[in-house]
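Q: Convert this sequence to structure tokens.
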Amino acid sequence: MVDKRADASDIAAGSWPERLAPPRWHPYLRLIRLDRPTGTWLLLLPGWWSIALAAGWWQGVLLFLLFGVGAVVMRGAGCIINDLVDRDLDRSVARTRERPLASGALTPLQAALFLLALLLAALLILLSFNRFSEYVGAASLLLVVPYPLMKRITYWPQAWLGLTFNWGALLGWAAATGSLALPALLLYLGGIFWTLGYDTIYAHQDKEWDALIGIKSTALRFGDATPWWLWRFYGAALGLITLAGLTAGLRWIFLVGLALAGLQLGWQIVTLKIDQPADCLAKFRSNRLFGWMVLAAILLDRLA
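A:
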């Protein structure tokens, strides 16, 4: 089945990056999803949580800036890898058929050269950190590169995405301290469960098409039982993030803030309409708010 909805494309013409850039740049901006920053925030925030837990204020500001640029670059690189692998599949559905590689606006060679440029930029950022963090950051490529294949071989590609998207929790701590410690590991595990939740919601947008062409996801695995799973994923995420904060020395302000953030997750589950793609997308995007609430809870506790 091909999705024939006229409004189904995930590319909005005339987005703010395109208004600021020359027309010849537009396919490249679309390729790295610069007009849709939710994925960048979800990649960035676990790293910022970790930096906020581990770093001093001035060091933290510098690392926040470097991680911000790095998240844009690495999220863009991941999108290019994904679209290179999936370009034939993307032509089959309205939501993705206007992506630059699927539509022919860019060739695979152009995309590969752009990918190389992004990876070189990421390398320059990584080399500004300590030696241990360089190893930790480089190891993330072992997760980034195979990710697009996971939905072809397992109903749990969201778990692989969780391993990938939350690597910043390890890298942030390593960049701040030159080592890894229990709070970073707990934060990483908590982020994985968070990603399992929000990306399951996201996957419900494409579940009918995915089922027909053999693409696997937790949305298809769980079906109508999705809310039951979300309570457990989000509950585990909150529990592990709580332990991360407590083992890092945070106290009651952090706990109050995290409780409020937990209400946001609960709202997602209670109001979720898994058969309405627009609602799934809105709930997915709302996870930026959860991420910011966790960050605020950490920073406010540090200030107290």
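Residues 1-7 have pLDDT under 50 and may be disordered.
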